[in-house]
Amino acid sequence: MKKGQRLFQELLVDLRKLYYLGSTLQILAWDQEVKMPKKGGKLRSETIECLSGILHEKFTTSSFGTRLRKIKKFSKQQLNDEQQAIVREVLHDYHKAKKEPKAFVELFAKTASQAQNTWREAKQKSDFPLFQPYLTKIVKLARKRANYLGYRTSPYEALLHLFEPALTLTEITALLEELKAFLIPFLKILQRSPVNPNPQRLFGNFPIEKQEKLNQYVAQRIGFDFEAGRLDISEHPFTSGLHPDDVRFTTRYDKEDVLHTLIPTIHEAGHGLYEQGLLAKNFGTPLGEALSIAMHEAQSRLWENIIGRSKIFWQFFYPRLQKIFPKPFRSIPLDDFYAALNTVKASLIRVAADEVTYNLHIILRFEIEKELMEGALAVSNLPRVWNERMKSYLGVRVPDNAHGVLQDIHWSFGSIGYFPSYALGNIYAAQLYHQAQKDLPNLENDFRRGHFERFLAWQRKHIHRHGRRYRSTELIQAVTGEKISAKYFIDYLRTKYSELYKL
Ligand code: ZN
Fold first, then answer.
1. Where are the alpha helices (DSSP H) in 375-449?
2. Is the peptide bond before 328 cis (omega within 30 degrees of 0)?
3. Which domains does the chain have, with CATH numbers?
4. C-alpha separations of 472 from 161, 298, 303, 367 in Å
5. Cα–Cα distance between 371 and 270 in angstroms, integer?
6. Are the CB atoms for 299 and 278 separated by under 8 Å?
7. Which is the most buried residue in 116, 220, 299, 447, by most CB within 10 A?
8. Which residues contact 252 (CB under 8 A, 6 or more apart)?
9. Dihedral of CA 341/347/349/354: which sign?
10. Separation of alpha carbons 366 and 361, rounded Å
């Protein structure tokens, strides 16, 4: 065996060991949200902190770095394309991990943990001044983090790259600006429509056990493999992929609103399908990992919205839903159900928003994050600016900070730069789905009959199985023959909602 190849094989063995440790951490985090008794919290944070430290240390030792650089030298002659991609991505992670000093990572984690506790209390009391000093600290640390990570034009870009490394701040801004320029007037047009669906009609009394069965059924039908995964309950739905053969997702239940559970379940199942679609042979390497948070959201939002809120999807599932819950669904025709499920209504809370207004919630956060990071906006002015923009973009008045600037958990744990992934995910999803429809004739007929295999196989072939082999920009260009564009998402929204609101 040639030297480069031998070194590469040794690297794989070491990487795998690190991944065993990483997946142990993941299961501890999963257990914390799903099973752990309340009093176990202190031990669990200490355990996670300690193991994360060990993982970080092992990954950033200089001998590991030296070996990586040696392999890189042989890379072009002795390694195949996939192996070269692995070396490229591991080096990327290694440099990133080396950039932030250990003491800084610990300080950030500690501050975020305190900020999170205070945020909970502040949200409960709708008391922004209580949270303000913590958020000020978080913003300062996030700026410091950006300095460590490095950036060209704006510190915000360094943070955005944690969630989507393939796009520059300028490119993300252009995509979101285009979307915003469409959404604000479009929302006003929808609001003037005389069509007035009634989502209240979908409420009822839905026993949890029946809902659990329904969730399992729908997730399985769209392709989630329950032999290689499970569905549990947690306060906030999430997905954890340890390995393609062990993917866990969660949901939460609402006795009166079955869709409040089912729709997020489809979203998380969409994340789960991505994780199950990674190749087991790549476990332990970056090719066994999802491409980016934005691409992950593209998968989940595609299933949740483009498919899960479509009429063709419900043509198959609605009769089943009516059978399980005759009240109230027997008396609601499919068309009315579909309209109610897709009601567009400007509202205060992001997570409860419809497909159209959701993106304005994200754009507002994107702009605010950018201004905070660049020092153009002071934390103390945040509530005022938030409320002004909610009024100007969505036309809603924010009654208190709990329903405004304090509603999301993200900033309290230091995740500045995450929000745009949701809107980018929508943009990617629409563009990819547009291509899938071209590649797979009569796809809609499959869905009408409850068959999702052909589409899932398409996703697997073009997206899931590659892991981090390509960047999002390359992948979308290769699959669709075009650059990432907001056009497809805008067209999708315009067509769907013009029909629903009879424009
Ligand atoms: Zn998600």
1. 382-389, 420-439, 443-448
2. yes
3. 3-150 (no CATH), 169-500 (1.10.1370.30)
4. 12, 11, 19, 23
5. 32
6. no
7. 299
8. 233, 234, 235, 236, 237, 261, 264
9. positive
10. 9
Q: How many CA atoms lie within 13 A of 418 on its CB side?
A: 11
Beta pairing partners, 285: none
How many whole angstroms from 215 Cα to the centroid of ligand 1? 17
464 burial class (0-12, 13-18, 19+ CB within 10 angstroms)? Answer: buried
H helical segments located in 126-250: 128-149, 155-163, 169-192, 208-222
Q: Please report the pLDDT score of residue 3 as a whole number.
A: 87
268 is catalytic: yes
pLDDT of residue 177: 98
Low-confidence ranges of the chain (pLDDT < 50): none
- Side chain identity at 175, as an amino acid letter? L
pTM: 0.96
CA distances from 488 to 171, 216, 429, 495 (A): 16, 31, 9, 10
* C-alpha distance from residue 212 to each of 249, 270, 386 (Å): 13, 17, 38
Binding residue ranges: 267, 271, 297
Distance CA 203, CA 199 (A): 8
CA 268/CA 277 separation, integer angstroms: 14
Distance CA 167, CA 164 (A): 6
CA of 166 to the centre of ligand 1 (A): 19
Residue (of 130, 191, 128, 134) closest to 404 by Cα position = 128
- pLDDT tens-digit map of 166-193: 999 999 999 999 999 999 999 999 999 9
Query: Which pair of structure tokens corresponds to residue 149?
Result: 């990570």
- DSSP class of residue 391 equals I
Exactly one of 268, 275, 367, 369 is catalytic; which is it?
268
In 223-310, which residue ranges form alpha helices assigned H by DSSP?
258-277, 293-301
Gap from CA of 237 to ligand 1 centroid (Å): 9
Tokens of 77: 């002659």
Residues, CB-to-ion distance under 5 Å, ligand 1:
300
Please give the Cα distance from 202 to 304 (Å, whole number). Answer: 18
CA distance 297 to 291: 11
Closest C-alpha among 92, 481, 99, 107 to residue 286: 92
- Long-range contacts of 14-20, Cβ-Cβ distance < 8 Å, separation of 24 or more: 14/64, 15/90, 15/284, 15/285, 16/283, 16/284, 18/55, 18/58, 18/59, 18/284, 19/283, 19/284, 19/288
The annotation places the binding site for Zn(2+) at: 267, 271, 297
